[in-house]
Specification:
By secondary structure, the protein is mainly α. The protein has helices spanning 4-33, 40-47, 51-57, 61-86, 91-108, 110-115, 120-123, 126-151, 157-176, 182-207. It folds into two domains: 8-59, Homeodomain-like (Arc Repressor Mutant, subunit A); 69-206. The chain contains ten helices and no strands. The mean pLDDT is 80.
């Protein structure tokens, strides 16, 4: 007899796998034909499951839409996490490379293109953006703030929040109405972001204990 805990763990993994397969199918269909023309039956067919099974895991088309837009945003945020993990001791380099990758990703992202495009397929996503926009913005700011807090331990929480909010809005702005090149967009954002990064690093260095625990001012 299989232990109950083992059955539960397998069931959780199976549900996660099924949701991943459904999301992959949704992304494939939406990027091809737009959200307005996407039907639950189409998604079920591409995912290789029955329509009742799809509704069992996603109670409605709106619930599936919510997870779809979350997935699109999380893919962009994962880019930021990956770059900052690559350069844990060099936030300036991580920020520079991260912004370049993120702006490139955003310029191709269907949710961003839906806001400012003549492409009917992309434009059909605009209702999703307007419906979920505020929640997605908060989610993106929360994630960037979490990444920044680790990369900039000397920064005050309120500064991290303001910085993250500004940076996310700048990235979206440059993705929707880009500069002549990605490099120009990144350069403009770095002029805003780097002063805070450098100030935070200085604050962190000033707050760090001196070797042996002796205060430098007190000798």
């Amino acid at each position: 007899m299989v232990p109950a805990g083992t059955r539960t763990g397998f069931g959780d993994r199976a549900r996660t796998l099924l949701r991943d397969v459904v999301m992959q199918a949704t992304v494939e269909i939406v990027r091809t034909q737009g959200w307005a023309r996407t039907r639950m039956g189409d998604i079920a067919a591409v995912a290789g499951i029955s329509k009742p099974t799809l509704y069992k895991y996603f109670g409605s088309r709106e619930e599936l839409a919510r997870e779809y837009v979350d997935r699109e945003v999380d893919q962009v945020l994962q880019t930021a996490r990956t770059v900052f993990e690559r350069y844990p001791g060099d936030p300036e380099r991580a920020l520079t490379e991260g912004l370049q990758h993120i702006v490139e990703d955003l310029s191709r992202n269907p949710l961003i293109r839906a806001v400012f495009t003549d492409d009917a397929v992309a434009a059909s996503l605009l209702p999703l953006v307007t419906t979920h926009g505020e929640r997605l913005l908060k989610h993106a700011v929360d994630e960037i703030a979490a990444i920044s807090s680790v990369a900039l331990p000397g920064a005050l929480p309120e500064d991290i929040r303001a910085y993250s909010d500004t940076l996310v809005r700048l990235m979206i702005s440059h993705a929707i109405l880009p500069s002549p090149s990605v490099e120009d967009s990144v350069d403009s954002m770095l002029r805003v972001a780097l002063p805070l990064v450098r100030a935070a690093r200085e604050n962190g260095n000033a707050a760090a204990p001196t070797p042996g625990g002796v205060d430098a001012a007190g000798g």
